[in-house]
Write a structure and sequence with these properties.
This protein is mainly α and about 100 residues long. The chain contains five helices and no strands. It is about 50% helix and about 0% strand. The chain starts with about 30 loop residues before the first helix and ends with a helix.
Amino acid sequence: MVVRGSSVPPVRLTLVNTRPAGESCGEFPGVDVQDLARHLPDAWAAWLRASFRNPADIQRAFGVSERTVRDWLACVSAPRAPVILKAVVDYPSAMPALLRRAA
């Protein structure tokens, strides 16, 4: 995915599904997905504060607007999947920080 007007290089992910065609992936063992979704804005904001020095660094890292960063830091919203995937790929501390609440 390439975001127009973004200086962030695209991330290429390779996903491997080992399940037979048509078989459901089911639940995530040990993770309450609904709890994760409820607490994602808080977990995301906490991880951003711990991982970046200032809002401008967050803007550069994810190619988002100043308003988006303000909303994230105020727990008004959380990012969509492409931004979370970029965080997980580029910053090893992201995944455990975002999943900690749901475990």
